[in-house]
Amino acid sequence: MSTEQRILPPNVSEADFDAALARFRDIVGAEHVLIESDRLAPYTKVMMASDDDDYLPSAALLATDTEQIQAIVGVCNEYRIPIWTISTGKNLGYGSAAPGETGQVILDLHLMNRIIEVDPEVCTALVEPGVTYQQLYDYIQEHDLKLWLDPPAPSAIAGPVGNTLDRGVGYTPYGEHFMFQCGMEVVLANGEVVRTGMGGIPNSSSWQVFKWGYGPYIDGLFTQSNYGIVTKMGFWLMPEPPAYRPFLIQYPDPEDIHEIVEIMRPLRISQIIPNAVVIAHTLWDVASHKTRREYYDGTGTIPREAIEAIKQDQGIGEWNIYAALYGTPEQIEVNWRIIEQAFGQSGKARLFYGDEAEQASGSFNYRAALMKGDMNLQEFGLYNWRGGGGSMWFAPVSQAKGDETRDQTELAQRILEKYGFDYVAEYIVGWRDMHHIIDLLYDRQDPEETQRAHDCFSELVNEFGARGYGIYRTNTEFMDQVAETFGQPLRDVHRTLKRALDPNGILAPGKSGIRL
User: Is the pTM value of this prediction over 0.85?
Assistant: First the structure.
């Protein structure tokens, strides 16, 4: 990298940065300290509506063990160098592998990829941050273990540590990932290593089975935060059930979302339907395997007549529900009859499973794979829907109530239409909540459209917040704005914790809007 192009960490002199880089080379090896522009290119690619110069790293460090990370944070404290930690770097739609701010040093943990333990008796795993779902899936298959994973949609290329720490979700009964996390090893900003839960006991046999340990529970402090660097994480695996039945329910009209949620809520709370259910809108359902121009090549929001044409052509609904039953064949038959009765009352729902479901939806097979923990990347087809490489995931939460879901849908569609974007969205149904996932797709090569996308996302954040709908996860461009919607008292607590645990502010400044 030439002197003219060189990026320095904020408030760090070139001489100090060179001295720090020399120390980093001593710690991780020269081959694992990246400063050349071509080697840093993978850490500059973003899909957010932002200026290209806003998220450029000054260097990247590839650590291979906990001891190296301890030494790295020591150097960072000495020279006040901020580091931005990534695991697999596949947090697409939320920031990818780029730093939170230009000048930060990337701490890349993808080489820390040991599967430390999988216990098939108590159904637990202990892994490092670089382990991918595909790697762990292959391990389970190779050892013929009757265990299932719960991957998010990116499945194969993402990892359980990074996804859980960002409080991501999947689609099996273990879909709320942080709920099924159990025990962490964390390097603090001062270089100390802490093991949460039962991990503080030497040679603990219960680190991965009992979450709470003794005293205050602190695992949550290390999710969506910048208080430490997680180097190991335990979590629970789902035992393979005797039988499995994925199924599809289709509804024809926009207003049906109210009925769907009112029927679904008691079935989820009572665990008749035990998994994280998806309610996919027409455009999300078709965008995984079709492109927009096949149905509409104009500007602005795709019109209603084009949506109706998609529904007719693909044989899908306005709302397409993907769920599954797990257990013995007898249990599945009993619960299926309950579902048929619940959704059959209005006469609007169409229910499918087996071959009929495959014929009814081009998305069914990949949804069925995700709901049993298999690897599948079909959902990345969303990025071909509009083209241009721009994607930002907007993720507000609501109660699992029909009125709120209808209100969120109408509000999102109104704002997206104002700026000329499509409502490519799905709801993920938790036990009592709804994650409303909207993929704001746009052409990032078009400056005017990129600015519109930025303004649209900003208005979505503000308008949803004003109605009491908080966003549970966001990309790095909007972390401060989302943090503001949760109020200053909470931000003050976050800052107090930051000052106590990281007084030099070296760990991921700006993550979730948290700084000194």
Answer: yes
